Amino acid sequence: MIRGLRGATTVTKNEEKEIHTNTRLLVEEMVRKNNVEVESISHVFISVTKDLNAGFPAKSLRQIDGWTYVPVMCMTEIDVPNSLAMCIRVMMIVNTEIEQQEIKHVFQNGAVSLRPDLVK
Length: 120
What we know:
Elements: E1 2-10, H1 16-33, E2 41-48, H2 58-61, E3 72-76, E4 87-95, E5 106-107
Parallel strand pairs: 1-5, 2-3
Antiparallel strand pairs: 1-4, 2-4
């Protein structure tokens, strides 16, 4: 079965190092909590709010062992008034036997406010 794993985090500054660090921490937790093997990852979409442009968050994933060939794409999140600022969102598409309701979505830092119903 193909499933989507959702994750989001925030940063405090529009700085490349912080964007990379927080993105990597988020993705590593998503993988760990859902027992994802790199070979089972189909692709990953990463969106950022318009206030984050100091670096490509996908670049940080290239530093993770085994991720060289995982297709990753960055894009800008739609600019909805009063939405959460300085936010990085991840949608990871994986092959898994985990049931939909058993997926553990990950929200870190200020992004916990996006889906408190999914925070476990």
